[in-house]
Amino acid sequence: MRRYLALVFLLFLAIPAGITFSGCTRNPAANYCNGLGYGVKTTAVYTIDLEPRTTGVSLAFGQTRQINAPTAKTCKGEDATVSSGYAYGTTNNQLVDINPSGNMCAGTWNRNSGGGIADYTICNAPNPIPNTGGLPYASAYITASAGSVTSNPVQVFVHAQVSSIALALANQGKCYSQGTSAQLDSEACFARNGQQYELCAPASVTNFSCPGGLPPGATSVPSCSAAVGTLAYSIGTSSVATLNSATNVITAQQPGTTAISAQVAGSGSSAGYFTTCPPQSISATLNGGTDVIVTKGVQQNMVTTVTDTNGNVITGLTLDYQSTNPIDISVGNTGAVNPSFPGATSVYAICQPGTCNPAPINQVGLFGTGLPITSNNVTITTPGTASAFVWLGAPGQSQYFVPVDLLNGTVGSTVRLPYVPNSMVMDQTGSNLYFGSSHALMEYGTANNAATKTPDTSVPGVVLAVSPDNKFLLINDQIRKVFYIYGTSGTINATFAGVGNSASWTPDAKTLYISDSAALGANHSDTLYVYNINTGWTTYDLSSSGGAASLALTVPSVGAYLSGATTVAHTWCPQGNAADYASLVFYPQGDSVATKTDVLAATNDGKHILGAAIAGGGVQLSDIGVTIPSAAVVPPNTGTPVQAPIPCPANGNSLQALSLTHTLNQLPVSGVNATQVNQVVASPASNLAFITYNGTTAGALLPYYVPGAGGGAGTLGSIALVGNASITAPLTGTFSPDDKLFFVSTAGDNLIHFIDVSKLTDVKQINPNLPACVPGSDVDCKNTSPAITAVPATVIAVKPRTTT
Question: Residue 408: its pLDDT value, please?
């Protein structure tokens, strides 16, 4: 027994410990992909992916490209390590050669060149050049291998260098409605012996764009995907369309035209253009109507319906909303109407390049893109009465301005400026007063009538206008003959050579009209200047119509009427061939009215351009009834047709000027002995206008005009002002924002008269006591009478104020 136990003990010691433990835990089958304990291990390379497997690689003759790094995976889908590197193969090394590091050559690499030239540094084009059906292209396949595993093959397209690419859309010659899609395809050219020949094109292309057509020996061309591989496209304006880069499907988004660029084998070009259909009409309503009354302080929202040229509704547009009286009734960039004070206004929406309906400058007019489109007017009235702040000045005659608070009925203290001003303009919100001079620009805040900045000597000149968004001033240095577009932040944004007398920005602040007349004296000329943020500066000779000392924008702002011996209009629709940018005339003439006007004004309702002029020894008023071409549009859920202005007219590629039509009523203004007409001032409600003028005869009257209904002739009348016997002329005037009063400055008594608009009577007078500047003390001082100590106001600025 003892011997038996000793034997068992010796056997136990003889068995290796490792065998004992491994026998309890090892499972060899788990280390192999098949689970049977043999074959490919789970840590070994199982697959190799070589990209781009679907699109392939495109190479021009002699071109090189590093192959994409292969990706090795185990049978479990985990990354596998390739320690020994990859071996690369090609099905045709005379067409596609590849060096050990994976650098491809469209041809053959140099090997054993000698002379110190390293191997694989020169890629020689294929020899002979591939010829497939008479065309220089062919393809081969490459692979990557590691161990016993080979990747998927990748097709390599080898071809002549592509010299140009032209987009070929299935819907060529038309635009695409929002949300519709198209497959991008192209045709490509190559060069041979100085001629451009067709290399590839879709089957739908029958008229080849390559000048040489098919090369000798070719009877047809393949698709570009078969000859040169997949083209990579990019979109110039992403708001117009979106692109699925994996499928090259393009989808129309917002109206406009965008350039499409294509790239293949290192060659890129502007392939063509894609157009999302522009609006055919924009209808605008407020609370379901187009002539509405809104309560002060209650925000309302404009509703617009936009239909494209295919008759489909467009959504998500970025429209510019415009108010002709933004200080009382403003409208935000989403169409929210804010009636802050009593008053009246016209509000409308504009699809305006470049935020809406853009197009490259050389494609303006393509299918109607690159052009503005406007909605109908919505007339808004906010009833009530408000007080006002008034500022009085006399540029060229006084170095002071005077504030007046109508709530308290008091005339404030005179404010002395650093220089005698030559101009005085208030911004659209009534926050700042800008005074020009030949020395510097002076800026004063209306909150405390104090200077807000040090005078800016970099922009001497006349302040002609402030942009509606309060971002820019138009300053004209009439000595140096320079226009400055001056940012209110203190920077000069643009300059242009010229001299102007009258200027106005469109309510969207994107277009600026400036007029001038040679009759104004030296340095002046019969010229219209137009500055647009998209097209820049353009000029027009107005000598045939006698120049323009005054202008008035139409409502909506599709153009401007210009005073002169003949009153003409220039509108925003370009004229010429849309396919030839050099032929386009921007802002061509759109109307001509056989009447002389010295000054002009537009009524807010968009129905009248009112003009006045010295004529026949007296004053003549011209009531020009304006009609902007329009078409009936029925907004959804209203059932009521709205006359929305039509887009810019075109006949094929021929763009036409917008043709405005008019009626004309001419009326002599009796009882007025004027030497110069200064203003026609239209009321916010479009139902009344006053005429101001210069004169020398005591007993001067204030003429007024009530426009007729339906475009017919209205009625003229005049008001005898208080103290009329001493008054020689009503010089300048403006309406209170609530349309209750008309403030008019008069020469002879140097007073400001308050005219009750409803009664047409002079109900109050104040004396601003504007001190006269000293003759010769300043280059801008035009006072030639040393005995004069006070002067009448020649500029009146007004803004509403709260009465609580």
Answer: 79
